Amino acid sequence: MSRTIPVQRVFIVLIGCFATMSQTVLRAATQPADHGYATTSTCHHTSVAAHIVALADKDNDKVLLGKAMEYFRSGKYHEALLLFADLDSRYTLSPRTKAFFGVSAYYDGDYDTAVTQLTPMLSTPDAYPPAEMSVYWFCCAESLFHLHQYQSAIDHYEQYICICRPEERTEAFVKMGQCYIEMGLWRQALETLESASACSKAFDKEPQRTKRGNTIAALTDTCEQHTASGTVFANTISMAPHADSSMKKTDNKNKKKKETTKK
Residue of 62, 153, 171, 262 with fewest CB within 10 Å of its CB? Predict the structure, then answer.
């Protein structure tokens, strides 16, 4: 599966957020030493020294955050991911910073981390501009697809379709169709691929329209073959390994009963 939101667009959408990040995103998970005056001179000096060290560490972490942002902007997602992870282990990051962390993880192929870090941002969908939120919904949907959590991926693609630009809906419909195919739900896949075809004809330009049209046609042909051969129910059952294994266990029990009866 290709990452179809261009990296340049991610930068354009998120670049406006970088200016104030060092001021707002680091909230210490643990508080520094007590700011009050100690009862003894020794305790007081110890407290002041600890506080100075804490401030120095925090200033250093702001530098690290700046480096993480710069790595992100330059497409060095693995390096950004390492720094975000380090900061996340010691601070309570803001939802937007966690979202940047999640986008970095998605582009680096760490899909579990992407879902974990993007979810807090998605729980406040009205707090940020739709153009920004659409990036997060898409990255999370794609990550869920790669994790084979197809129904959850469909739910996220649907949210993405509600706020993305019209010309971006085609790809989401194609991905949703692929999710339904993976689940063995051929009719739902066909309906979704019809929407993908309509969007492609309305918004795609050549050669993208031809390329996407070929993909949609191939997926549609696969669905039609299964619906025509009457394998819809059978294929759906095959996509449910737990049900299949339980049926096998039942068969094994029946065989043992018959063997016992014969004896």
Answer: 262
From residue 214, alpha-carbon distances to 130, 147, 160, 177 in Å are 31, 26, 24, 14
Q: Tell which wins on pLDDT, 184 or 41.
A: 184
Element (H, E) at 22: helix 21-24
- 12-44 exposure pattern, b = at least 16 Cβ within 10 A, e = fewer: ebbeebeeebeeebbeeeeeeeeeeeeeeeeee
Mean pLDDT (the chain, rounded): 77
Other CB atoms within 10 A of residue 196 CB: 25
Tell me: cis bond preceding 129? Omega within 30 of 0 counts: no
The Cα 19–Cα 23 span in angstroms is 9
Amino acid in position 214: N
**Spatial distance between the Cα atoms of 262 and 233, rounded to a whole number of angstroms:** 36
User: Could you tell me the pTM of the whole model?
Assistant: 0.70
The string of pLDDT tens digits covering residues 204-235 is 999 989 999 999 999 999 999 998 876 554 34
Residue 121 makes CB contacts below 8 A (sequence gap 6+) with 95, 96, 98, 99, 102, 128, 133, 136
Q: Which two tokens stand for residue 164?
A: 């993305």
Instruction: Read off the pLDDT band of 25 (50, 70, 90).
Output: very low
